[in-house]
Amino acid sequence: MNELTAADFDAFVTQSTKPVLVDFWAEWCGPCKVMGPIIDELAGEMSEVEFAKVDCDANSELAMRFNVLSIPTFVVMKGGSEVGRFSGSMSKETFKERLQSFVK
């Protein structure tokens, strides 16, 4: 899992040859803590996707740039552009289905 900051975000998402799932989260966020282990599991299972995290407290400029109004928010990027977004906590199965709909 890649922990991104404003300094390396653009390079990471534009240089990836795979879709990138960016998890906008914060340490104090309950739903983020629920989703964390699910994201980690899927990162190990879905080799066709790069997984990255952005701590909204430490990188508020990125959260503002992507208009993150609630967390967790998950942004799917392809070629440096946003192609999908969803938020909140959900089951692993639901999350995987949503993510796969943007990857195909």
Question: What tags apply to this protein structure?
Answer:
alpha/beta
Describe the protein's architecture and organization.
The protein has helices spanning 9-15, 30-45, 60-65, 92-103, and strands at 2-3, 20-25, 50-55, 73-78, 81-87. Helix content is 39%, strand content 26%. The longest helix is centred in the middle third of the chain and has 16 residues, at 30-45. It is α/β, with parallel strands linked by helices. It has one domain: Glutaredoxin (3-Layer(aba) Sandwich). The chain has a five-stranded mixed beta sheet with strand order 1-3-2-4-5.
Largest sheet: 5 strands, mixed
Instruction: Predict the CATH topology.
Output: Glutaredoxin
Radius of gyration: 12 Å
Name given to the CATH architecture? 3-Layer(aba) Sandwich
Helix fraction? 25-40%
Total domain modules: 1
N-to-C SSE series? Answer: EHEHEHEEH
Shape: globular
Average pLDDT taken over every residue? 93
Strand-residue proportion: 25-35%
Structure annotation, total helices: 4
- Specify the structural class: alpha/beta
Strand order of the largest sheet: 1-3-2-4-5
Distance between the termini: 21 Å
Return residue spans where pLDDT drops below 50 for at least 5 consecutive residues: none
Report the top-level CATH class.
Alpha Beta
Tell me how many strands there are. 5
In short, what is this structure?
The chain has four helices and five strands, in the order βαβαβαββα. It is α/β, with parallel strands linked by helices and 104 residues long.
